[in-house]
Amino acid sequence: MLRPKTKIRRNPGKNATPTIPVSLKKGRISMAKCSVCFRHCDIPDGKLGFCGGRTARDGVTEAFNYGRVTALALDPIEKKPLARFYPGSRILSVGSFGCNLRCPFCQNYDISWSEQARKYAETAETVSPETLVDIALETRARGNIGIAFTYNEPLIGYEFVRDTAKLAQDAGLKNVMVTNGTAELAILRELAPYIDAMNIDLKGFSDRYYTDVLGGSRKMVLAFIEEAVKNSHVELTTLIVPGENDTEDEMRELSQWVSRLRNPDGEAVPLHISRFFPRFHMQDRDATNVRTVYRLAEIAREKLPYVYTGNC
Ligand code: SF4
Fold first, then answer.
1. Residue 212 CA, ligand 1 centroid: distance in Å
2. 71 partner at 20 to 30 Å CA-CA among 10, 104, 119, 248?
3. Residue 195, domain member (yes or no)
4. In CATH, what number is assigned to the domain containing residue 189?
């Protein structure tokens, strides 16, 4: 784990960004509607939205987790995972707290949506975009190519991603975002000019799984991916969960859809198929059989040239 060496500052108010132009007055309490993701939370002033990472002030929503760093590490780029973007390099990976989905098997539950994650809202220290870029530049000699916004869901605090990525780009660094892809296209379009590569979860290909198990929106994710490939190198990740998204038919449908996409360089979009392990609130089943992962990867390869297996 890397620790910031330079001065840490808290609550940079200048970064508050309206996500809707007007506030809703309910009685005497000012409310703001967040337009970052499909939940469109109505947030009373000083309270948190569903994700725990956004708040409202004077009827305007802002990133409550702005620069609030819970994890900072220099990771191999393959760990994001990105297989076809500067292979062999490393990237300074930063995470905050909060998430807008509710995946019961979350590997990072301590910073996403557990009781522990809520505690980070009080204890996480704030690192400015300038400090983070300084750390990224200092670690260049160790193979670092830039900054990855990862670990928790970065889009719920997109203002920090935007402000940091702009500075990083000016400094000649690359920017990577690892995301569940559950945000409005307006948010993606604001970030896209600064994001060189993304790994986006495509967690399955049924609305039932996205809605009932993950608390998400498959429709929003598909639209996000289609837009993301226009500007950034995109790779996708599907975690195979026994009994949820592990049929050959579903993988055929998913890989068929992915095969229509092209990255900005004209290449096919890589797909990472990874193995589930029982974690957090989903401990009622075994880890995915390795043979199932390999078989589903074979099926995906009927449509896609770049398919990788993980956690096997
Ligand atoms: S980003 Fe958070 S606050 Fe905004 S709509 Fe989604 S869950 Fe609600």
1. 18
2. 104
3. yes
4. 3.20.20.70
Residue 251 within a domain: yes
Give me ligand 1 centre to Cα 222, in Å.
18
Per-residue confidence (pLDDT) for residue 120, from 0 to 100: 82
The reply to whether ligand 1 has any atom less than 6 angstroms from the CB of 34 is yes
Q: Are the beta carbons of 53 and 118 closer than 8 angstroms?
A: no
Name which residue sits closest to atom 3 of ligand 1, judged by CA: 49
Is the distance from CB of 68 to CB of 83 less than 8 angstroms? no
Q: Is 106 part of a structural domain of the chain? A: yes
CB of 264 within 8 A of CB of 230?
yes
- The rounded average pLDDT for each run of 10 residues, N- to C-terminus, in the chain (312 residues) is 39 36 58 97 96 95 96 97 98 97 93 85 90 98 98 98 98 98 98 98 98 97 98 98 98 98 98 97 96 98 98 94
Ligand 1 centroid to residue 168 C-alpha, Å: 26
> How many residues are present in the chain?
312
With respect to residue 114, please indicate whether it lies within any of the assigned structural domains.
Answer: yes
For residue 190, the enclosing domain spans 68-310
Element (H, E) at 125: strand 125-126
- The CB of 99 under 6 Å from ligand 1? The reply is no
How much is the pTM? 0.92
Atom of ligand 1 nearest to the CA of 48: 3
Query: What integer pLDDT is reported at residue 24 of this predicted model?
Result: 56
Q: What is the pLDDT of residue 27?
A: 57
Distance CA 220, CA 157 (A): 18
The number of distinct structural domains making up the chain is 1
